Amino acid sequence: MAYSEAQKKATAKYMKNKLDDIKVRVPKGKREVYKAHAERQGKSLNALIIELLEKDMQEH
């Protein structure tokens, strides 16, 4: 399903106001390995990274 221009603008506005970006560099070829690992757990790569960071912060 295609998104209308209004939907695209609303999404961009939400992301700008509610989310920060972090760029993560990984070794060549590892992105797909990490993505597949996350998908096997039923998560997006982004969700898995956030979950792992939050867990690590709670432990320390």
Automatic annotation (TrEMBL):
Q: Which organism is this protein's natural source? A: Hominimerdicola aceti
Please state what the protein is called: Arc-like DNA binding domain-containing protein
Q: Which GO terms describe its biological process?
A: regulation of DNA-templated transcription
